[in-house]
Specification:
By secondary structure, the protein is mostly helical. It is built from 10 helices and 2 strands; from the N terminus they run H-H-H-E-H-H-E-H-H-H-H-H. A two-stranded antiparallel ribbon has the order 1-2.
Length: about 210
């Protein structure tokens, strides 16, 4: 957390830095804590971490106190190694679900931060407030996307109608009963083009992933 706020005062925090750390760390739920620690351990940001590094981190959290569940959890984590000596975030999720006590010290630290900084009750209400604000933001984004889609569709429909007029010529007015059939053909062509664009985008994305792996 100190690295994230880029403090470089040799062990001394300003009040602002203390607030940044506390307000970031205290609202974490258990799953968010796990996500945060994986983010910290995955320094190269490649989506996987050396299993020995994770094991060292776990024992460091426990101050090298060995309990049976801890040992079993670490051994279980090792079984998730596909042979390259590395684990992914989903592997740690499996460990946490099966052996929740493995990451308990991190959760305890979070609870202590809450308790000694404004109190657990205050942070409980704050987390509700944060969630409501996040949900409201998602709803607004969804409404904007829906409006954008509707505007884009209306524009596309307008273009399709112009195309229909050009295709039918005078028959657009003289043989108006044939408009629906012609519209259906244009829609079919539109869908084919859309499918081709999606396929092309998928191929490009797969090529990017292959390049990253290399």
């Amino acid at each position: 957390m100190f690295d994230l706020i880029e403090t470089d005062r040799g062990g001394v925090l300003t009040f602002g830095e203390f607030v940044d750390i506390t307000s970031t760390f205290a609202p974490f739920e258990p799953s968010e804590l796990l996500n945060f620690f994986f983010f910290v351990l995955d320094q190269d940001k490649v989506g996987e971490v050396d299993i020995k590094k994770v094991e060292h981190f776990i024992y460091l959290m426990w101050d090298h106190v060995i309990i049976s569940n801890l040992t079993e959890g670490v051994e279980f984590m090792k079984t998730l190694d596909s042979g390259d000596g590395r684990v992914k975030y989903r592997d740690l999720q499996k460990v946490e679900r099966r052996y929740p006590s493995v990451f308990y010290p991190a959760q305890r630290l979070c609870m202590h931060v809450q308790k000694f900084s404004l109190g657990e009750g205050w942070w409980t209400l704050k987390k509700i407030e944060i969630k409501e604000a996040a949900d409201a933001k998602k709803r607004m984004e969804a409404l904007k996307k829906n409006k954008q889609r509707a505007d884009m569709q209306a524009e596309q429909d307008k273009l399709n109608e112009e195309m229909l007029k050009k295709k039918m010529g005078m028959n657009y007015y003289l043989r108006f009963w044939e408009r629906d059939k012609a519209r259906a053909q244009i829609k079919k062509i539109e869908q084919i083009n859309k499918n081709l664009e999606e396929m092309e985008a998928k191929i490009l994305e797969e090529e990017k992933k292959k390049k990253k792996k290399k």
